Amino acid sequence: MLRLLLLGVLVLAMAVGSVDSKHNYADALTKSILFFEGQRSGNLPPSQRMTWRKDSALQDGFYLHINLAGGYYDAGDNVKFNFPMAFSVTMLGWSVIEFGNDMGSDYQHALDAIRWGTDYFLKCTRLAYKNIVYVQVGDPYGDHACWERPEDMDTPRTAYAVTFKHPGSEVSAEMAAALAAASLAFKSVDDPYSKQLIDRAIEVFRFADTYRGNYSDSVGKGACPFYCTNNGYEDELVWAAAWLYKATNKAEYMQYVRDRIYSISKIVTLGTIAEFGWDSKHAGINVLIAGMFKNEEKPFSEFADRFLCALLPESHDRWVDYSPGNYFLHISIFKNNKNCYNLGGLLFKAASSNMQCVTALSFLLVTHGRHLINTNRPYYCESRLTDPRRLIQHAKSQVDYMLGTNPAGMSYMVGYGKKFPQYIHHRGSTLPSLDKHSKPIRCRDGDGWFASKQPNPNELTGAVVGGPYPDDFYPDNRHDVGRSEPTTYINAPLVGVLAYFKAHPK
Catalytic residues per the record (predicted)? Predict the structure, then answer.
C-alpha cells in the first residue's frame, strides 16, 4: 500500500512538472493595458496602438448640447455604462497607487488608460453642482439588437442622467471613487490635474450622498437587466468615502466609513464577506482601509483577514468554489500544520463572466497579503497563525491558470501564449476594420460575420474573456456570451496583479 501511495505521489508530481507554470508576466501586463485602447470611444489620439480601431461616437451628448464623447465601451457592445466603467477606472487607479513602481515602461500607458476614463467622467459630472450627473450613453436595447462596429453606429445614443429628483447614488459614488483614486495616481506626475479630479470627486460624492436612490430605479430599462444594482447603494457611498479619505486625509470621510461599515458588512447573515466587484464593494472597503494603517485597524483588518481566509481552498469556511483544475501537491505554509491540498482549480463565484471575480479577488489577495508582509502583522486564518505569503501564492495560482496553466492548456487572455480564444464575443473584433472594409456595416449587416466559422479578424490584444465552465471546459464560441465576452472590469484589477508578479515572479 505504501509503495502504491508513493508511486501515486510520483506520478502526480511528474504531471505537475509537465505543466508549464512559468509565465511572462511583463508581456501579459503590457497586453492587459493595451486592451483598454481597443475599448476606447471618441476621438482616438495619434498614440493609439491598437490601430484597427478608429474614431467613434463623436456626437455623444450633442443633441443635449453637452459633449459626452470619450470613455469606454464596457464589453463587446457599443454602450457606455458608467457604473462598471467607473469601477474599472477605480481599479486602474488603485493598481497604479499600489503597484505603479513595478510597471516599468507600462506605467505611462496605465496612466493614459486612467485619464481616458477620468476625462470622460469630468464631462459627465460637469453639472454636478446643479445636481445633474450623466451616467450612461447608448440605448442598450437598440445597441444589442445590432451587430455593427462602433465606428458605424446608427443606433440611438440616448444619454441617461441622474438628478436630485431621480437619483443614482451607487453610480455617482463609484464615479466619485474613480476620480479620487485617479487623483492619487496623478498626484506626483500632474498635480493640477490631480487637484481637478479630487475637487470634482468631492462634489460628486456630495450629490450622491445628499440625494439618495438606486440608479436602477431612476434609469429604468436603460440599466436593467444589464447592470442592475442588486445590493443597494450604501456600499458605494462608503467605498467613495474611503477613497476620499485616502486622497484628502480628512477625518470626516473616515468617520463616515466607521459609522456605516457594520451596517453594510452583515457578514454572518448575508455572506457578503467574499463579495467584490462592480456591484459590491464590501471586501474592497476593508482591504483598502486596512492598508492605510500600519497596525491592525478594527474592524477593517479583522474583516479583511476573514474575507481572505474564506477564499483559500483549504479553508473550512470558504465562500467560493473551485473547478477540478490540475491536481497537484501543495504543502501548506500554515505554521506547524503541513498538509496536502488540491489547489489546482479556478475560483468560481459567478455563473457568467466568472473571470471578473477571479481578477478582482486576486487583486485583494495580493494587496492585503503584501500589506501584512510589509507591516509584519500576524495573520490568523481560522485561528491558525498563517504566513501571508499564502495569500499571494493563491492569487498567483489563479493568474497562472488564466494565462495557461490549466487543463485546456490555453490562455484566456487574447494574444498571450500559443493558444488563446479566437472567437470572442465582441463587435469590433468580429467585424472587418475600416482599413479592410471601408463601407458602413449597418445594424444587421454584421450577422454573417457573427455566424462565421472563421476566427475574429481583429485581435483584441490583452482582452480576458469570461472564462471556462466550472468543469474547466471552454468552448471558444462567440455565441456563448458568458464565457467569450471580455469586459473592462475583468481586466482592470488584473493590471495591478500582473505588475506585482512581474516584479516578484517567484
Answer: 425
C-alpha cell at 328: 497537484
d(CA 339, CA 102): 33
Beta strand segments in 266-366, E: 321-322, 347-348
Burial of 22 per CB tally in 10 Å (0-12, 13-18, 19+): exposed
C-alpha grid cell for residue 268?
454572518
Contacts of 305 (CB under 8 A, 6+ apart): 368, 379, 380, 381
| Backbone torsions φ then ψ of 79, nearest 5 degrees | -100, 145
Tens digits of residue pLDDT in 301-357: 999 999 999 999 999 888 899 999 865 433 333 333 343 344 459 999 988 899 999
178-234 pLDDT, tens digit per residue, is 999 999 999 999 999 999 999 999 999 999 999 999 998 998 888 888 998 888 899
Domain of 193: which CATH number? 1.50.10.10
CA–CA distance, 198 with 6 (Å, rounded to integer) = 61
CA distance 299 to 306: 11
Please check whether residue 2 lies inside any domain of the structure: no
**11 belongs to a structural domain:** no
List residues with catalytic annotation: 425
| Structural domain harbouring 104 | 20-503
- Tell me the average pLDDT across 269-281: 72
Whether 14 is in a domain gets the answer no
- Find the Cα–Cα–Cα–Cα dihedral 80, 83, 86, 91, rounded to 10°: -120
- Angstrom distance (rounded) from CA 339 to CA 322: 18
Dig out the grid coordinates for 176 from the structure. 466619485
Residue 457 falls inside a structural domain: yes
**Number of folded domains in the chain?**
1
Crossing angle for the helix pair 282-290 and 234-248, to the nearest 10 degrees: 20
CB-based burial of residue 132 (10 Å sphere; 0-12 exposed, 13-18 middle, 19+ buried)? middle
pTM, rounded to two decimals: 0.93
How high is the pLDDT of residue 339?
Answer: 39
